[in-house]
């Protein structure tokens, strides 16, 4: 059943996750999160601590989003209201984590720009920063749309 906002009032299963809002955002979240993961893994930066957080966030969100997608695709979510709540909470936490990781990655990248001869790592980090903010926006939009769906239960 669809509401007047275009957001599915129930939780989809199977191939419907590729056609309903906000579940259609799973694939771009996986793609951009994977790109952040790959690009950060390709760089070597002297202060590894902020990049450790970025790697944790990107790997954690990639794995959890993949598991979440499989659960929805297999139709393993029986108590719809609880799963809608969990979907909203997970994407809210992921958006917050990605925002903090994006800010940390931006700071490291700006510090890297000041060093001479680091053009390859700098270009990788700039790309990672862009993809990280895109992933943040995707998770944020998914959070808002999940909240709308959660309130419809």
TrEMBL record:
One of its GO terms (molecular function) is structural constituent of myelin sheath. Keywords: Membrane, Transmembrane, Transmembrane helix. One of its GO terms (biological process) is myelination. It is found in: Membrane. GO terms for cellular component: membrane. Its main location: membrane. This is Mal, T cell differentiation protein a, tandem duplicate 1. It comes from Amphilophus citrinellus.
């Amino acid at each position: 059943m669809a509401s007047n906002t275009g957001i599915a009032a129930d939780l989809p299963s199977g191939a419907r996750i590729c056609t309903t809002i906000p579940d259609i955002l799973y694939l771009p979240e996986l793609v951009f999160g994977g790109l952040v993961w790959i690009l950060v893994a390709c760089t070597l930066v002297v202060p590894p601590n902020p990049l450790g957080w970025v790697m944790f966030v990107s790997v954690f969100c990639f794995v959890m989003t993949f598991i979440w997608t499989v659960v929805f695709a297999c139709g393993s979510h029986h108590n719809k209201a609880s799963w809608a709540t969990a979907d909203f909470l997970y994407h809210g936490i992921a958006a917050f984590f990605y925002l903090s990781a994006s800010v940390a990655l931006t700071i490291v990248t700006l510090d890297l720009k000041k060093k001479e001869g680091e053009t390859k790592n700098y270009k990788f980090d700039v790309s990672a920063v862009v993809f990280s903010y895109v992933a943040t926006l995707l998770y944020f939009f998914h959070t808002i749309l999940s909240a709308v769906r959660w309130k419809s239960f």
